[in-house]
Amino acid sequence: MTAAPAAAGTAPRTPPILLPALLVLLAMTLAAVSMTAVFTDTVWLVQVLAMTAVVLLTGAVFRAVPALRATGMTVIAQFVVAALAAVYLCVPETLTAGVVPSGSSFGHLFAQLAAGIDDIYSTTAPAQSTPGFRTILTVGFGLITMLIDGLVSDIRAPKVAGILLLLVYIIPVLLAPRELRWWHFAVIAAAFLLLMLSSYVGSVHLRSPATAITAGALALALGVGLPVLLPDIAVRPDQPVNAQGDLTVINPFLDLKQDLNTDDDSMAFTYTTDDPLAPPIRLTSVSDFDGTTWMPAEFDLDPFAVAVDGMPSAPGVSADTRTAERRTDISIVDLDQQHLPAPYAPQSVDGVSRRWIYDAQTLTIVGNGEITAGAQYGVDYLSVEPTAEALREAGPVSATEFEDLLALPQDTPQIIADTADQVTAGSENEWEKAVALQEYFHSGEFTYSTDAPEEASGDVLADFLEDKQGYCVQFSGAMTAMARSLGIPARIGVGFTGGTATGEGAYEVRINQAHAWPELWFEGTGWVRFEPTPGGPAGTPPPWTEAGGSDEPEETASPEPTEEPTTEEPDSGTEDAGEPTAEATEDTTGGDAASSGPSWPLIVLLVALALVLLALPALLRLLAAGRRLRDPLDPERVWEEIRALARDHGMPLSPAITVREHLERLGELVPGPEREGLAEIGRAVDESRYAGAVRTELDGARVRSTLGALREGLRKQAGAAAGVRARLWPASVFGLR
């Protein structure tokens, strides 16, 4: 006997169980590919795809097996499996015998998540995927996959799932906009369209998906694709974002000459610091040179790069580089500036508004409509204090990677490269070349003088090398150009000298102490400050830049005066070799967040939340039973509780069989005295349904005893595992009918 075929078009065919999961897997894979712009490697991608596959496979199995589907535990199973998978993928070293998670596994997992959060603030995209990054991505994609899988397979809401998937694309858009290519958008768009297609799997209506997909593709192209094709709007950091009355902005380079010539000794700012080196207070760096003018490189002002939220670590600084964590508190006196003065490399700022934002490449802090007037703030910064030996070991850089920082205009006077080659002849490494350049300017042939052109163009630098007279603009511009001609990436730091000491750790900085100095890039150390200006306001060069100097900074009690009557600075070439060195040694660990351990209050909170979620079905089941067995007893509610017990233990009661027949069969599972209790319940249910009145009064204590015996009988019949499941995740909570 065959069943009659269903009328055509009366109902859509039930979609296959595995096909939606495969579509979600493909969509999540494409979404992960769109994230590749953020990282320089693809190690993280393997973990993410493994987690995605495990979550979707678990969901597919629970939906495909009727017995598992009936439990309503798909999401819970996915969560448990994902938690275990996170341990295996992210902290496999914590497994006992390489197989079983240990007691510390989840603690290490939380520590990795915390380290990943720290890495977000300490690195810039594109970056190497650290263990912390990989853990965040693996756990995050696992959770997003559960949500999207549930929306597509259970709730049948692919549009909501598509919107959630598009949110993933916000990550590379915010973190690595310059690394995005057309195919990054193409893959996330394809993932979105796949989710739209999932609702039509198994449907015979072919025009509907075509229409929806066409509309979705058009919306994506207009809403997201069109802005990608528009030209970038670059904003120079030395321009005010909006007008603010008599806002004055110091040009970060060319106006330095004007400042020095005006004899303006008005107080710019004062500061206190625990840094014995008292380094220059930096405004920004300039690296673009067109043959006439040095200027800051263009960068987009990102309103979300808020300085008070923390800043990235200094570019290029490795864990082996000697560093020290320092603190400076600055009070602006008479300086209206859009750049926030800060020592290099700032890591966090407090005391300013959230409109002070930073450029991740230069660590310049600029005001988004803000100026420095009257500001009082603190800066925690990482003082980079490399050893000469470490700099000697730095090898040449990739000319392709540092093309912009090695560039010199074609019309650069030949004297610059020729002089650089002559001065560095015989140097065996990049550090020796840089030191030779600095010593050349300190050889006694050059004279510091403010009676020089204010520009640092190619022609002026050529004249400077001939006349051997100038001030910091010419010295820094010449050394930067000469270093680039030798293949050493170089830029110019712009700001103020360390100022004049007014007490222990206290300094004041005046307008005419504006200064410029070269910064050269060394592999493994990043940007290193040099000081070619002799006899000027900056004092002696840092110790790591002198061929005969000590590797260890030494602290002095007071600064040495310079030839400039209005410009004094502490001797930056000396520092106590004791305590600062110990601090620096401690900082070379790189601040691995995982070593400090997880945040135990957070772990306790998350564990408690997980336990509450796991126990929630059992709590709901207890509340339901209490409501049904509340005095005075209603036979129908008691019968509902019996049906729930049977359903919890995997033996649902068919409505095609009478209540009395069900209770007779269930009576075989309980001792003799309790069978009579079940019979009484059956008579009371029949009377309430068919006699219009209940003549058999149910005793509450007897009913509860009978149901307790029935629960025990059902547990023995179903097995120990089913009994535990009935207690923890009762199927009746997820739908009795």
Polypeptide structure, described:
By secondary structure, the chain is an alpha+beta fold. The chain has 24 helices and 20 strands. The strands form 7 sheets. The protein has a 6-stranded antiparallel beta sheet with strand order 8-11-7-3-16-15. The chain is elongated. The two termini are 29 Å apart. Mean pLDDT is 77; it is low at 1-15, 202-209, 225-250, 254-261 and 554-599.
Short description:
The protein is an alpha+beta fold and 737 residues long.
Q: Features of this protein?
A:
737 residues, alpha+beta, six-stranded antiparallel beta sheet, four-stranded antiparallel beta sheet, disordered N terminus
Measured between the Cα atoms of the first and last residue, the distance is: 29 Å
- The proportion of residues forming helix, as a percent range, comes to 40-55%
Major beta sheet, strand line-up: 8-11-7-3-16-15
Number of strands: 20
The low-confidence runs, each spanning 5 or more residues with pLDDT under 50, are 1-15, 202-209, 225-250, 254-261, 554-599
Q: Estimate the strand proportion.
A: 5-15%
Number of helices: 24
Radius of gyration from the alpha-carbon trace, in angstroms: 36 Å
Molecular shape: elongated
Structural class: alpha+beta
Please, what is the average pLDDT?
77
Largest sheet: 6 strands, antiparallel
Topology:
Elements: H1 18-33, H2 43-64, H3 66-71, H4 74-90, E1 95-96, E2 100-101, H5 105-122, H6 131-153, H7 158-168, H8 170-175, H9 182-198, H10 207-229, H11 255-261, E3 267-273, E4 281-286, E5 288-289, E6 294-295, E7 323-332, E8 346-350, E9 356-358, E10 365-367, E11 376-384, H12 388-392, H13 403-406, H14 414-423, H15 430-441, E12 447-448, H16 458-467, E13 469-470, H17 472-485, E14 490-496, E15 500-503, E16 506-510, E17 514-522, E18 526-529, E19 560-561, E20 568-569, H18 579-587, H19 600-628, H20 635-648, H21 659-667, H22 672-691, H23 700-718, H24 720-728
Parallel strand pairs: 12-13
Antiparallel strand pairs: 1-2, 3-7, 3-16, 4-14, 5-6, 7-11, 8-11, 9-10, 14-17, 15-16, 17-18, 19-20
Helix pairs in contact: 1-2, 1-6, 1-9, 2-4, 2-6, 4-6, 5-6, 6-7, 7-9, 9-10, 14-17, 15-17, 16-17, 20-22, 20-23, 21-22, 22-23, 23-24
